[in-house]
Structures are given as C-alpha cells and as structure tokens.
Design brief:
Elements (H helix, E strand, L loop, with lengths): L4 E5 L3 H16 L6 E5 L11 H20 L2 E5 L3 E3 L4 H8 L4 E5 L8 E9 L14 H10 L4 E3 L8 H7 L7 E3 L6 H10 L8
Parallel strand pairs: 1-2, 1-3, 5-7
Antiparallel strand pairs: 3-6, 4-8, 5-6
C-alpha cells in the first residue's frame, strides 16, 4: 500500500501558497505520491504561539486521528517542509521497525521530537483521539516517554530550521522544515534565500 503523505491546510492565504510550494518540491524530488491536503476549519495563524495557532493544532489532531483510522501508516508533514530528495523508501523501511519516526525540533537535543515531519503507524492513533488542549508535539513526546518504539531522524538529513540555518553548508538534506522563524512571511523569505521557493510572485 502506498504511504500517504499528508499536510493540514488552513484558510490563511500564505499557508495556501506555502503548501503549493511543498507540493512542487515533492515533484522536483521525484515523489510520485500525491500530497493529501486536509482542510482545517480555521483561518489559521500567521505566527507561532498565538491563540489561533493553538486552535489550529487542535483541528490538526482530529485530522491525524481520522487518517490513521483509514491507513496503516502515514507520513505527516507541515506545509513549510521542502523536499530535496525522495524519503519514501527510507520511511517505509523505518516504519517496518518503529511505530513513530520523527524529525528533531532542537538544534542539538535529539530527544525533542517534532510534529512538523513524522511517520506513524495506526497502532498509535489513539494519542490523537482526545479532544484536549495538548498539542500534537506534546502528544508525541508523551508517546516516547511511555516507551513506544520510536526513531529520531538525523538532523543532517532531516534538519529543522535552526539546524539548517547553522549547518546548511555542510549537509545534504532529504527534507528541510523551515520552522524557527517568527511568522509566515519570514518562512517565505528564508525559502527564497536558500533557493527553495518555487512559487512565482
């Protein structure tokens, strides 16, 4: 069965453009799996940490749960991910062994799991079934603390934004998560600076 690649999309116009950029990067990287866009019933948020941001994450958890009810394994990516190589074969192999495969969200601590890029098997779907204020990233951390079979991807191959901005000259990444910036406009400027913005103005 094909590994679904899924992202969540709010109604915010810049999120729509950033998601289009993600989809173009998939094609450029030779990924022939269509991107599944889950429309969230929210206008989204322009900046990390706002009330709108946390509300958006609650909507995302519900979407994750529905997808894992339908598929045995799913690769979830934030819309601000850019693919440079095809990760599908590697992720499939890892999910044969682990129930959770994640990027790190820290420049140095491999114990900080990121919800911006993670593969998961349906065995863990119930973590997203609770309608509470726990965001997806904290939910993933809780799974790891409970001892589920989890694997952290190397930041040299799957860097978060902070790692990428520091070490981009010395690594050859598969996918980059353009986080660690204050707002959507800054994400786009970062992508443009590194030649990873594929949308015409």
């Amino acid at each position: 069965m094909t590994l679904p690649i899924v992202t969540t999309v709010s109604r915010h116009p810049l999120i729509q453009k950033i998601t289009d950029n993600l989809e173009i990067s998939m094609r450029k990287a030779g990924i022939d799996i269509p991107l599944t866009r889950i429309a969230l019933d929210t206008d989204g948020a322009n900046a990390f940490g706002t009330p709108e941001y946390w509300e958006m994450l609650k909507h995302a958890k519900r979407a994750f749960y529905r997808l894992l009810q339908e598929h045995p394994r799913v690769l979830f990516v934030d819309s601000d991910v850019v693919f440079l190589q095809n990760p599908v074969e590697e992720m499939e192999s890892l999910l044969d062994v682990y129930d959770l495969v994640c990027m790190t969200d820290s420049p140095s601590d491999l114990g900080v799991f990121s919800a911006g890029y993670f593969g998961m098997t349906s065995d863990l779907k119930d973590v997203f079934s609770r309608d509470d204020d726990v965001c997806d990233q904290v939910a993933l951390k809780g799974l790891v603390e409970k001892g589920v079979k989890a694997h952290m991807l190397s930041p040299s191959k799957y860097p978060n934004g902070c790692f990428w901005y520091q070490y981009h000259r010395s690594i050859d990444p598969v996918a980059i998560h353009y986080n660690w910036v204050a707002c959507l406009e800054e994400k786009i400027e970062k992508m443009k600076a590194f030649g990873h913005w594929y949308i015409g103005d």
